[in-house]
Amino acid sequence: MKNYIDLHIHSNFSSDGDFTVSQLMEQCQEAGIKIMSITDHVSVKANHEAKRIAKDYNIRYISGIEIDCRYNGIDLHLLGYGIDEKSPDFDRLEEHIWAEERNASAQRLEMFKELGLVATKKELNQLSNLEEGGIWTGEIFAEVFLAKPEYLNHELLLPYRENGPRGDNPFVNFYWDFCGQGGSCYVHLDFPSLEEAIQMVHKNGGKAILAHPGNNLKGQLELIGEMIPLGLDGIEAFCSYHDAITTDTLYDFGLKHGLIMTAGSDYHGKTKPAVRLGGYYCPVQGEDLETALSLKGLLVD
Asked: CA separation (Å) from 180 to 89, 168, 229?
């Protein structure tokens, strides 16, 4: 059975998303998605329009956000569902993180230059979602570098070419490899702690869900148990990044601990071409999945 729920989708209000809210609604309708949430990075702006037009597409909608945060030195993403998107808390968060991202972008520009990969600010800004520019994600750097003819055979970029070992999602794989924790162009940002992020979600009426734990906590899934006392409501058990074994492990863990378990693709567009709407392994289907996700109370009527 085709998955009809996708609670992890990014619009162009994210620094690395491609599509407008209405474009995403159209794509979800075409993909057979009936329940969705737009969870942009530290931004709630998409929710206003999404809630207004969801009925036009026969889609049930849940307000969402994805918050960058940190736990014991580990960079994580926290999904907030059913939040009050009108709260000024989220506007302040977005302003703070975007300021951090601008500083980090300038630092990465110099770090890549030291690796022999040069880009101009003009080239980078042409690909930025933000009108004022200055925020250049690892995916944007990748897109610029991979398009340069002079870098066609650059050894650092070969893995991200077609048929290369990292060529399935070249832009985001480049980001993870170079700009993620442990990467040569990683920059430490002032993210809220996981506990602070959970508290923000709860303060604004939402449920706090740990995003794609099989990715961010690979080999350390036992840490989820430490996060539950902080107020964590659930985990994104069903995700495009999780294989069947990881999914089943997370699902069993969620059942054991009475957690909300959500499902999402983490759809962005060109930055993750191998990710499709509703594209995740899930052993639970239909109304049983809605029950497992504990969706009651979060959906827009």
From this structure: 26, 18, 27
Which of 115-124's residues contact partners 24+ apart within 8 Å by CB, and which partners? 115/156, 115/184, 115/185, 116/154, 116/156, 117/141, 117/145, 117/151, 117/154, 117/156, 117/157, 119/144, 119/145
Residue 18: CB partners within 8 Å, gap ≥ 6?
12, 268, 269, 270, 271
Cα 77–Cα 265–Cα 263 angle in degrees, nearest 5: 80
CA 49 to chain centre: 19
| Single pTM value for the model | 0.92
Length of the chain: 301
Quick one: DSSP state of residue 171?
H
**Helix, strand, or coil (residue 27):** helix
Tokens, residue 162: 């077609």
Write out the chain's pLDDT in tens, 301 residues. 589 999 999 999 998 899 999 999 999 999 999 999 999 999 999 999 999 999 999 999 999 999 999 999 999 999 999 999 999 999 999 999 999 999 999 999 999 999 999 999 999 999 987 666 789 999 999 999 999 999 999 999 999 999 999 999 999 999 999 999 999 999 999 999 999 999 999 999 999 999 999 989 988 999 999 999 999 999 999 999 999 999 999 999 999 999 999 999 999 998 898 899 999 999 887 666 776 666 655 665 4
Q: Delimit the CATH 3.20.20.140 region(s) of the chain.
A: 5-87+192-292
Question: What is the Cα 29 distance to its own chain's centre?
Answer: 21
Under CATH, what is the fold of the domain 5-87+192-292? TIM Barrel (3.20.20)
Going by C-alpha positions, the residue among 119, 136, 212 that lies closest to residue 175 is: 136
Rounded distance, CA 26 to CA 74, Å? 36
How many DSSP H helices and E strands does the chain contain?
11, 8
Taking the C-alpha atoms of residue 253 and residue 247, their distance in angstroms, rounded to an integer, is 10
